[in-house]
Write a structure and sequence with these properties.
The complex is a heterotetramer, with two copies of chain A (about 325 residues) and two copies of chain B (about 400 residues).
Chain A lengths: L6 E4 H15 L3 E5 L15 H5 L4 E3 L4 H13 L3 E5 L10 H8 L2 H4 L9 E6 L14 H5 L5 E3 L4 H13 L4 E6 L6 E4 L14 E4 L4 E5 L4 H11 L6 E5 L2 E3 L3 H11 L2 E8 L4 H13 L8 E5 L10 H4 L3 H9 L8
Parallel strand pairs in A: 2-3, 2-4, 4-5, 5-7, 6-7, 10-11, 10-13, 13-14
Antiparallel strand pairs in A: 1-8, 6-12, 9-11
Helix pairs in contact in A: 1-7, 3-4, 8-12, 9-10
Chain B lengths: L46 H26 L13 H9 L6 E3 L5 H6 L4 H4 L1 H4 L8 H4 L11 H14 L6 E6 L6 H13 L3 E7 L2 E2 L2 E2 H4 L16 E5 L3 H19 L2 E6 L18 H8 L3 H11 L5 H22 L20 H24 L15
Parallel strand pairs in B: 1-2, 2-3, 3-7, 6-7
Antiparallel strand pairs in B: 4-5
The chains are: A alpha/beta (about 325), B alpha/beta (about 400).
The complex binds thiamine diphosphate (2 copies) and magnesium ion (MG) (2 copies).
């Protein structure tokens, strides 16, 4: 990890840089997980950290996710700031009890005397041809768990900024990394990384007047592409990138929807019981009289994640987004 | 490693990876639980230690009775008694230094108290006014853990972190025989051994997990035999022999402190009361079994030894009993005061800063409480004062 | 378990009877879990089963929830019909990976050749003064998991009927038992138990014209009480008991909302990411132009479940339901 | 149990609950992995067995090479090779009766094939046209398990169920050294021992879990030493010695079949290839180590023995090689055909009956596919025919 000048960087590189800078800035930051040391992680996000900071700071653990997270809880109790890597989304499930019953609750259980400043990094979502159990969108589980922050970057700069913010947070953060954006590139100067913004603010990635696409993580590029394509149909779409699912930025989202009067939530996670229901419901509660049409959802199907050769049929693409936009009762307009 | 006799032209190399990574023999427990009381070794027991243990065991027994009584008076939501297990509870607390950490399971309020935590705070969880009643950092006692075995990896992580920081800290983690079946037990012991974390795992094998007897829980020769599978020593001790438990745990703590890595201790004991006040133990065990164990009561065992050694004069007995009564009386008196947990606290500690969503919900509750208070004020002035404090606004 | 004549019965008794009848009817039905044998379960729901059917049919297992559910998966693979008891809601979390990665997916993974007819009984929710980790409303996790059916009874008769249907189902069913209704009573004749209806139908428990309360499980009695109280305010509330969260009965729910034009979803689970968001969103999608007001939600706060002495402040009660009804923009009416 | 000397008036009863539930000694593994090839015992090995193993090992080696080549040609999404582990893979399949069950881990397609499953079906998961490619009931092979160790409790439940039904069925479950660290490993072994379920647990200790070497995975003397902690026998075997693995597994299967309960077998082996085609093994291990293990290659070991015994004439070599080439050629040919999984199948097996919600979603996909097909038809007639079948409507 030597310094590089401004040039295209991948999200994976920005994440590595964020971990490196966090470890350099604070000796309490420790990285642990399966294959994070010598190998640098199966996605190479922890590449070079063991070499630079030693194996005590970036540690290959035994293969046991509850043990990893439980150990991290104990480390946080003693004042460290552990960053746990779960190798894939579905392999975070063995640690579910530790996450829900301890990580999310320790501060509350102890009246604030025992906060747990720890970050759980989880590569999530599909689109990379992974075999079963390697492509789950598991965010619904985390956002239904009070006590956790849940964030997910969609750009290279946010990957850096949000991960720094997560590690700096005094509360546990589930940090969801969209697998299929690991290799997405952006001009980014690692020497001038984006300022670390506090967690909890959405951002308007594209302004528009016709309708709002509300999205996050892996679906942001899809929405931006859809917004471009929609111009041909005469729709000027606004795109909001949530960045943080918990806390939720009602202000930014509702301001946009009040302006446009129409909204579609887009995510890869399944529809039923997924984040889209929550988002649609809360937007509707707050913006009911501004809405020309119900808030629609474009999401993965309510099925187990498909095998690689069929995943393109599952993932919400530009066409489905445009199709939903078309169903936003435009006739009311004319 | 022996080498197979050379024969013929070809001889496979031994699998290169294979070397026994540790000598298993010293890791295996003895065939019988270690005992001191009633053996020759008892003569060597330090009289000061014997007396300290005795005072604590008597107090612990009284505490268990008092806490159970408080459930009948509606002053505790539930109480899982450690009557019969006092030797383990007390020894676990006494073998630790101030800087060490205790990781109790839900049954271990007595150990928590013996470590110095105010009994009322130790019972907060079971009284129901909050979850953890004490600041874990004050006496270095982790929250009582209700999800079984989940506290064990915490102990490992904490001990590991302390070692990384160069601090001389040992963690002692308590779990029941039932809890050893959970995956978290396995993962914690494995992590501890791999990292040589200074942790002592104390399994109180009290014969039951609620109604499930040990033989439905495991087919192992003993729970201590699990240790060798992680590469740590396993020790078996008579859990009703306070002196033996104290000695074995002290050795284990020393071993861990000196960098020898974790130790698994199985203490054979018995829960004389039902699982909790809400449980009916006659459904799953007979009086005869309980009677046998009453004949091996930890308090009796110790008192007989003290008597034999002439250390139990009337004054000592009276002092111990008075201490115990004082503890019980203080507890009774304080537990009969109505706690007034502040409803606004529901929002105070979910995050360092409440999310906008929680701020909204908090204000809704505040409005409700104010409306309630107004109604109450109309009905009986002053009664509801203080129900809404600013505590929740933090 | 001897037969009794028509008289008040508790929900716990109806559940016991359902298990007994299912075991008598089909030798493939096996019950397993912690303390389910000799003790009859901590809520006594399996009382008498080990005695009547033997310990091989109703088995006390070691204390390990992933092991219990994983073993049940293997038993189901071999043609048995296991019914697993999780002792409390939060103690189902250690089995989360088995549930999500195997139970929910085995049929799909194997193209239908290896269905898993198993039932996971989970006592859930609060209101009984339980200490921490004993009162979670965990339904959000299950309904976001495709491949599971999720049902929950609110009446004594449904407890019997739905549990029989769950055990008879060829798909895995998460059967959520509202703890605080275990001792609720109803006139019920165990000799003439309700016919076993297929899973998936909601039922209108009370007809009304002003607005619809959509609820399930532990919150049904609250809603019925609220509906009574609402008469004083001049509101005639309809109450729909969902009974099944997956599959969801859009038909019954939307028919009611279209009739009344207003709806409130009531549940004890947390609001953010809870079932209410999904329900509100799908009702809005389907009934937008019938709605006089946004669908509102009355739910538990988004906090870890409170300690016993504070739980009354958390649980949605009659007042909060009425308050939400009052916010349904009645001025539009006049 | 020895009894402590009587001394003085008081003698505590031994803790009544305590009796060693099993004699631990016979459960402990030998100090060295069991080996046959190159030892005196090799002389007694059945020539028919030797030849069968040889044919399979040669085929297995060729299969691994072919499957790896298929990843380079984009015909497999990923392939975790078992090159170097063929002795374990083959023996695991061959020791079972038809009615028995195999529970493979994700790396064990070779064992699955040796059990009789069509290689193309065994590779479906890794090719990516569906998850499990075979009907588990046809050859009594559970789906390849990707979440590590989660298949172990399934094996226990199945074996237990078979025993309850009075069927003479043994389950053999495979897991890696890394997988032994998971809680599910612990829970499965414990359940099996408590229920005396006829299960053989085969741990292929190939030295690594992806990049993590064994010494970071466990501090145990051996993984086989874990067995005593559950009360089952632990056996250690040279996993590259096909005859030894076959013998140890056969014994274990017999033990389980005869009601002796489960057995844990640790086979010491080595993964000669990288973790998968996507892995770069040079990041975590040196050439020298790999070279040492190449000197202990399971195919070579067996061939040397056959040669020594004069069982490896030119015809045998040619026949084995031809069989292997035929397997590879068949696989290659069939894998070069494009599979055409039906998108409508996404909805066909989520439930026995699709929910109303899934029916809606299915119809939406159907409409999309029909629109797509129309577009394709316009572009190039006939090309997209069959893309939408009625399969999904089931
Ligand atoms: C993960 C988990 N599963 C189930 C329970 C419910 N439960 C509470 S105590 C208990 C028995 C515990 O037995 P043991 O570990 O032997 O401890 P003891 O009660 O004997 O002290 C059970 C099953 C729990 N608290 N946590
Ligand atoms: C529960 C779970 N955690 C993590 C992974 C990711 N993963 C796949 S293979 C592997 C290493 C497995 O090592 P081992 O058990 O020794 O088997 P081997 O690969 O050597 O055959 C890991 C960590 C997984 N598949 N499942
Ligand atoms: Mg116990
Ligand atoms: Mg391995």
């Amino acid at each position: 990890m030597t310094t590089v000048a401004a040039r295209p960087a991948t999200m994976a590189q920005a994440l590595t840089r964020a971990l490196r800078d966090a470890m350099a800035a604070d000796p309490a930051v420790h990285v642990l997980g399966e294959d994070v040391g010598t190998l640098g992680g199966v996605f190479r996000v922890t590449d070079g950290l063991a070499k630079e900071f030693g194996e005590d700071r970036c540690t290959d653990t035994p293969l046991a996710e509850a043990g990893i997270l439980g150990t991290a809880v104990g480390m946080a109790m003693y004042g460290l700031r552990p960053v746990v890597e779960m190798q894939f989304d579905a392999f975070a499930y063995p640690a579910f009890e530790q996450l829900v019953s301890h990580v999310a609750r320790m501060r509350n259980r102890t009246r604030g005397t025992m906060p747990l400043p720890l970050t759980v990094r989880i590569p999530y979502g599909g689109g990379i041809g992974g075999v079963e159990h390697h492509s789950d969108s598991s965010e619904a589980y985390y956002l239904a768990t009070p006590g956790l922050h849940v964030v997910t970057p969609a750009t290279v700069a946010d990957a850096y900024g949000l991960l720094r913010a997560a590690v700096a947070s005094d509360d546990p953060v589930v940090f969801l990394e969209p697998k299929r954006l690991y290799w997405s590139q952006d001009a980014w100067n690692p020497e001038e990384p984006a300022p670390v913004e506090p967690i909890g603010r959405a951002v308007v990635r594209r302004s528009g007047r016709s309708a709002t696409l509300i999205t996050y993580g892996p679906s942001l590029p899809v929405c931006l592409e859809a917004a471009e394509a929609a111009r041909a149909e005469g729709w000027d779409l606004e795109v909001v990138d949530l960045r943080s699912l918990v806390p939720f930025d009602d202000e930014t989202v509702c301001a946009s929807v009040r302006r446009t009067g129409r909204a579609v939530v887009v995510h890869e996670s399944g529809s039923f019981g997924g984040p889209g229901g929550e988002i649609a419901a809360r937007v509707t509660e707050r913006c009911f009289h501004h809405l020309e049409a119900p808030v629609l959802r474009v999401a993965g199907f309510d099925i187990p994640y498909p095998p690689p050769m069929l995943e393109r049929h599952h993932l919400p693409g530009v066409d489905r987004v445009l199709d939903a936009v078309a169903r936003l009762q435009w006739e009311a307009e004319s | 490693m022996t080498v197979t006799e050379q024969r013929g032209a070809y001889r496979p190399a031994p699998p290169p990876a294979w070397q026994p990574r540790t000598d298993p023999a010293p890791l295996l427990p003895d065939a019988e639980p270690y005992r001191v009381l009633g053996t020759d070794a008892a003569d060597r027991a330090d009289p000061v230690l014997l007396r300290t243990l005795h005072t604590w065991l008597v107090a612990g027994r009284r505490y268990n009775a008092q806490a159970t009584a408080l459930t009948k008076q509606g002053r505790l939501a539930v109480y899982p008694s450690s009557t019969g297990q006092e030797a383990c509870e007390i020894a676990a607390a006494l073998v630790l230094q101030d800087r060490d950490w205790l990781f109790p399971s839900y049954r271990d309020t007595l150990a928590v108290i013996a470590r110095g935590v105010d009994p009322v705070q130790a019972l907060t969880l079971l009284r129901g006014d909050w979850h953890t009643g004490y600041d874990p950092y004050e006496h270095r006692v982790a929250p009582l853990s209700t999800p079984l075995a989940t506290q064990l990896p915490h102990a490992v992580g904490l001990a590991h972190a302390a070692r990384l920081k160069g601090d001389d800290v040992v963690a002692l983690a308590m779990v029941g025989d039932g809890g050893t079946s959970e995956g978290d037990f396995h993962e914690a012991l494995n992590f501890a051994a791999v990292q040589r974390a200074p942790v002592v795992f104390l399994v109180q094998n009290n014969g039951f997990a609620i109604s499930v007897p040990l033989e439905k829980q495991t087919a192992a020769p003993s729970l201590a035999h699990k240790a060798v599978g992680y590469g740590m020593p396993g020790r078996l001790v008579d859990g009703n022999d306070a002196v033996a438990v104290h000695e074995v745990l002290s050795d284990a703590v020393r071993h861990a402190r000196e960098g020898g890595g974790p130790v698994l201790v199985e203490a054979i004991t018995y829960r004389l009361d039902a699982h909790t006040n809400a449980d009916d133990a006659t459904r799953y065990r007979g009086d005869a079994e309980v009677a046998t164990w009453r004949g091996h009561d930890p308090v009796d065992l110790l008192e007989r030894e003290l008597t034999r050694r002439g250390l139990l004069d009337e004054d000592t007995v009276r002092a111990a009993s008075e201490d115990a009564e004082a503890l019980a009386a203080g507890l009774r008196a304080r537990m009969h005061q109505d706690p007034r947990p502040d409803p606004m606290d529901l929002f105070a500690h979910v995050y360092a800063e409440p999310t906008p969503q929680l701020r909204e919900q908090r204000e809704r509750l505040r409005a409700e409480l104010e409306a309630e208070a107004e109604l109450d004020d109309e009905a009986e002035p002053d009664a509801a004062a203080g129900a809404v404090s600013e505590g929740g606004a933090r």
